[in-house]
Amino acid sequence: MKVLMFGWEFPPHIAGGLGTACYGMTKGLAANDVDVLFVMPSASGDEDQSAVKIINASDVPVDTVSTSVDEFLGKVRFVHIGTNMVPYVDPQDFTRMVEEERKRQIKSFRVQYGQKYKFSGKYGDNLMEEVARYAMVGATIALQHEDEFDVIHAHDWLTYLAGIAAKQLTGKPLVVHVHATSFDRSSDDKIDTRVYDLERKGMEAADKVIAVSELTRNIVINKYGISPDKVVAVHNAVDFSGRENLYVERGVKDKVVTFLGRITFQKGPEYFIEAAAKVLKRCSHVRFVMAGSGDMLNRCIRHVARLGISDRFHFTGFLRGADVQKMFALSDVYVMPSVSEPFGISPLEAMQTNVPSIISKQSGVAEVLKYAIKVDFWDVDAMADAMYGLLNYPAMADMAARCGRDEVDALKWNNAAYKIKKVYESVINK
């Protein structure tokens, strides 16, 4: 079986969990005898291609796929949407990008055939423009490789237009993979309707929709109006191959509690801070670390200062690769207090490193973990109690670490990929 897969990230150059998931998934699919052509906006050339063939969209000129522009756009509609949505950028860079966008004021988006588009592959202020151009290049790639794949697989809304274009031009079945929705990124009354519309169009055009959890599956059904028969939940896993257990010498004797993720409303950083303040009233031999960046970073720093716990609280900025593993190696407790989390891979990484974890009940990963402590994200008293217990009762922490490690070791990408392959077979044989 052969798959044309559209993604936005791939290790080692990733900004979030999407790239990590795509990497593990493609390795799992290879183990299940599925060949993957993986298209990404901007490849660096140092990606691991042992289980996948990567196509760099920045190297592919857009072909004239129809006799006229109007004819082509009649098959696939590309809409340029100006937006300043930048999910993985520091507040300072966000301000700079907003000012640049105001000066630039893009009025139109011209389609030029026979030229290459250099994608950033990031989440900048021209994200929607890149999404539209990626769709055009994706259509070209689909036609060029039409005989080399049986099914199309598009990851998250950024690639849905490309998936739709490939399906319309080749007639091959389309599977879209929902890693997160607009309702995970914002509250119901602040939904970006433009992104929502792209998500819904992708789900409607797909032959099957894969959701990363039952939580996400229910959102797809209830918030997007997609038939339950069309949506299947396949939980993520974690690829631990090539990792070594690190020993990192501490500079302090205090216990360490870690938050690692984007510092945005979705991830619940302020609940973590409130719980930390409650713990520090009961014991002083603990330090709290917030590792990551995001639009709430400065707000969280001020919040810590107002609570008077700055001497016990540390902000590391964005971490990646080996630094993430070092942070887990330094941690005694990991906390993921997400307000909304479609799945959540970081607790699995922490538990694999023998770090007992506290996770939000409002997360998809809570569906597959028995040995993580689960609390409501808003219940800071329960969160503080869980932290205090793991910090002060060694037997409790040891059991959570030992059983948690065994639990996540069983969550293999090979197993998840087998389920995904079954989804492919269902749409190919339909």
Major sheet: 7 strands, parallel
Strand composition percent = 5-15%
CATH structural fold name of the largest domain: Rossmann fold
Gross morphology is globular
- Give the domain tally: 2
Radius of gyration: 22 Å
Query: What is the CATH class designation of the largest domain?
Result: Alpha Beta
- CATH-derived architecture of the largest domain: 3-Layer(aba) Sandwich
| Overall helicity | 40-55%
Q: What is the CA–CA distance across the termini?
A: 15 Å
Could you characterize what this model shows?
With 430 residues, the chain is an alpha/beta fold. The chain folds into 2 domains: 2-237 and 413-428, Rossmann fold (3-Layer(aba) Sandwich), CATH 3.40.50.2000; 255-409, 3-Layer(aba) Sandwich (Rossmann fold). The chain has helices at 17-31, 69-75, 91-104, 127-144, 160-170, 182-185, 193-205, 214-224, 269-280, 297-307, 322-330, 346-352, 380-392, 394-409, 413-428; strands spanning 2-6, 35-40, 53-56, 151-155, 174-178, 208-211, 231-233, 255-260, 286-291, 313-317, 333-336, 357-360, 373-375. Helix 12 packs across helix 14 (394-409). The radius of gyration is 22 Å and the shape is globular.
